[in-house]
Write a structure and sequence with these properties.
CATH superfamily of one domain: Metal-dependent hydrolases
Helix content: 25-40%
Number of strands: 19
Order of helices and strands: EEEEEEEEHEHEHEHEHHHEHEHEHHEEEE
Number of helices: 11
CATH topology of one domain: TIM Barrel
Radius of gyration: 21 Å
Distance between the termini: 11 Å
CATH class of one domain: Alpha Beta
CATH architecture of one domain: Alpha-Beta Barrel
Structural class: alpha/beta
Strand content: 15-25%
Shape: globular
Length: about 475
């Protein structure tokens, strides 16, 4: 099938011009002015932005946590993503204690077969055990499967936290195999002590989640990971940076030319720790990790994004229903499942409060949500840009469309919205994944299975464009 997108304002990380985009099959065939031909469909994008499909490199679909499982599967979660203009996400394949690395990968492939996605999907390998189940030899083979990033948790002691030996050995393997190491950077040992002490004092409400995980615990772990990665010689990506204290060691590393990158998430730009104090246990909706920080951090994070100290905005989409999952911790904040929704509203929030309010340019928004994730996670130039030969992952964005964000308007299985009641201007009009229209004027027009698994290139290597089939 061929599609011609006419007269839109094409925005990439570096370009901004009015042009037509011709799509043939799964790829972009041409970008130019006055393109004509016998396309099967013509989309009039006059007055609209035409941007690359967004990439969310940080999601948790069907992730086991705290005796329950995140409530979006790979169908519902990717439908929600598509309605927000995200066309590719990279999910964390979590190794269970005692499980082998190949078995963990097989488990996640089974998930996308059972609940097929409507957008493209990649995996990170989250390593939690190199003592009883995992072997370094298996870790080294993971990139051969198109899974070219390793995730390690420096928090959640007694569950999925790794010790420094496991962290460092994995970093050494990454340096040899061309993989990127990702870290959840918090000092799990110190937090474990603080949580136990807090509970012993009878402090059980959601607000103590933040009090027992102060910014210094994030900063210390970030600095430790940065230094260990430098010694090991591997590239490092620090996930969900929430505060100035954690930005600082990343900024220092980048000023020295070290291969260090960091992301923040949408929620850390808008939600502060006072939300944990909402009555009737409503504060549990904002229990995610790291926790919401004081509002003074918002502008620090915006500045870090604007100046390139932080490179990506992700969502850490890990939804748990308020009604029957968050309530598992009603009498003990440490038992509230850590995580929140967000995959659908990232571009809404960043466009309105970032671009429209002058904190970011549209080029910067595309860079943070499309191009940098594609570069860092082995998908560029196939994804993350508008160019001939690239996958036809394209969003026609109506920059004047009003929308009120709420649980009633999103498409996730979760029963609340972190940004409930927020009014924004700007939303997708048409969303395409590899040339197939997925969302068309607020209607889902694709079936589960439209998405494919993405075998990603090793760190720093290009993902070659697909070979177009002969006519």
């Amino acid at each position: 099938m061929s599609i011609l997108i006419k007269g839109g304002r094409v925005i990439t990380a570096v370009d901004d011009y009015v042009a037509d985009v011709l799509i043939e099959g799964e790829t972009i065939a041409a970008v130019g002015t006055s393109l004509n031909g016998s396309a099967d469909r013509v989309i009039d994008a006059t007055g609209k932005y035409v941007i690359p499909g967004a990439i969310d490199p940080h999601t948790h679909m069907e992730m086991p946590f705290g005796g329950t499982v995140s409530c979006d599967d790979f169908t519902s979660g990717t439908v929600s993503a598509a309605f927000g203009g995200t066309t590719t996400h990279v999910d964390f394949c979590l190794q269970a204690p005692g499980q082998s690395i190949p078995d963990a990968l097989a488990t996640w492939h089974e998930k996308i077969e059972r609940c097929p996605p409507v957008i493209d999907v990649g995996f990170h390998m989250a390593i939690t055990d190199l003592h009883d189940g995992g072997r370094l030899e298996d870790v080294a083979r993971v990139p051969d499967e198109g899974v070219t990033s390793y995730k390690l948790f420096m928090a959640y002691k007694g569950a999925i936290m790794v010790d420094d030996e496991t962290l460092f050995r994995t970093m050494q393997v990454a340096a040899q195999t061309g993989a990127l190491v990702m870290v959840h950077a918090e000092n799990g040992d110190a937090i474990d002590v603080l949580v136990k002490q807090t509970l012993a004092e009878g402090k059980t409400e959601p607000r103590w989640h933040a009090a027992s995980r102060p910014p210094e615990t994030e900063a210390e772990a970030t600095n430790r990971a940065v230094k260990l990665a430098h010694i090991a010689g591997c590239p490092l990506y620090v996930v969900h940076v929430s505060c100035q204290e954690s930005v600082e060691p990343i900024a220092v590393a980048r000023s020295r030319g070290w291969r260090t990158w960091g992301e923040t998430c949408t929620q850390y730009l808008f939600i502060d720790q006072t939300r944990l104090e909402e009555p009737n246990f409503e504060g549990a909706k904002y229990v995610y990790t790291p926790p919401p920080r004081p509002a003074k951090n918002f502008e620090h994070l915006w500045t870090a994004l604007r100046t390139g100290v932080l490179s990506v905005v992700s969502t850490d989409h890990c939804p748990f229903r308020f009604s029957d999952q968050k309530t598992l911790g009603r009498d003990d904040f440490s038992k509230i499942p850590n995580g929140g929704p967000g995959i659908e509203n990232r571009l809404h929030m960043l466009h309105h409060f970032g671009v429209r309010e002058g904190r970011l340019s549209m080029n910067q928004l595309v860079d943070l949500c499309c191009t940098q994730p594609a570069h860092l996670f082995g998908m560029f130039p196939r994804k993350g840009t508008i160019a001939a030969g690239a996958d036809a992952d394209v969003v026609v964005w109506d920059s004047e469309k009003p929308l009120t964000l709420s649980a009633a308007t999103h498409h996730s299985n979760v029963d609340y919205n972190l940004f409930e009641g927020t009014e924004v201007i700007g939303a997708p009009e048409v969303v395409l994944v590899r040339g197939q229209v997925i969302v068309d004027h607020d209607e889902l027009v694709a079936e589960p299975g439209a998405g494919q698994f993405v075998r990603r290139a090793r760190f720093g290597e290009p993902l070659r464009p697909r070979q177009r089939a002969a006519a």
